[in-house]
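Lab meeting, item 3. Inverse folding demo.
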């Protein structure tokens, strides 16, 4: 988007006719989102709706995103798990991920662009220098957080998996030791309960 371009946007919320932001294929989540939710005290309420998508090919990375659910009116299609179809709105509207706050404006490190042309809010409302700067600022922040998350997630995942494997190995080792002790105690107990062969016989 050039400096001469104007980006005016106003979310239509419940009056939206396309639900474009809710039904888009991926609603990404960043580490910054997790930090904000923690600070706000909402993390545990939202975390159940966050999904960790593992790579399906060498070109894919680990991705944090919102879980999906089928649309009631269109079961073959899916939407963000926090989309309330009856109310036609987001259940975590004021704590939504930054990718939702900047949607449909995105920044790729070099320029601004529209990620979707299906959003009816584009072109709505009045544009001002301050509003445009705010929209661009959020888009830039989302880009930085997305890059940071994409870079850090594999390392975080590796650390967690390494720790889980370590704990599993220690638990198995502890269990094996306990089973060995239980076996030794059982053998010792059986030995004590066996009749002694050292008793002498009565003389004839």
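The presenter then showed the designed sequence:
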């Amino acid at each position: 988007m050039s400096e001469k371009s104007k980006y005016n946007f106003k979310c239509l919320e419940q009056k939206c006719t396309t639900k474009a932001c809710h039904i888009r294929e991926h609603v990404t989540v960043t580490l910054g989102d997790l930090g904000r939710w923690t600070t706000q005290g909402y993390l545990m309420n939202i975390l159940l709706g966050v999904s960790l998508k593992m790579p399906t090919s060498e070109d894919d990375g680990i991705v944090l995103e919102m879980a999906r659910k089928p649309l009631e009116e269109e079961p073959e299609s899916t939407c963000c798990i926090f989309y309330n179809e009856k109310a036609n709105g987001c259940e975590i509207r004021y704590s939504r991920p930054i990718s939702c706050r900047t949607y449909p404006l995105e920044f790729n490190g070099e320029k601004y662009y529209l990620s979707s042309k299906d959003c009816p809010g584009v072109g709505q409302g009045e544009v001002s220098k301050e509003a445009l700067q705010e929209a661009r600022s959020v888009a830039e922040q989302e880009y930085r957080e997305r890059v940071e998350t994409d870079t850090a997630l594999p390392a975080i995942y590796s650390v967690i998996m390494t720790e889980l494997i370590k704990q599993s190995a220690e638990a198995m080792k502890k269990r094996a030791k306990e089973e060995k002790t239980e076996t030794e105690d059982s053998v010792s107990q059986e030995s004590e309960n066996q009749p002694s062969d050292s008793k002498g016989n009565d003389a004839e």
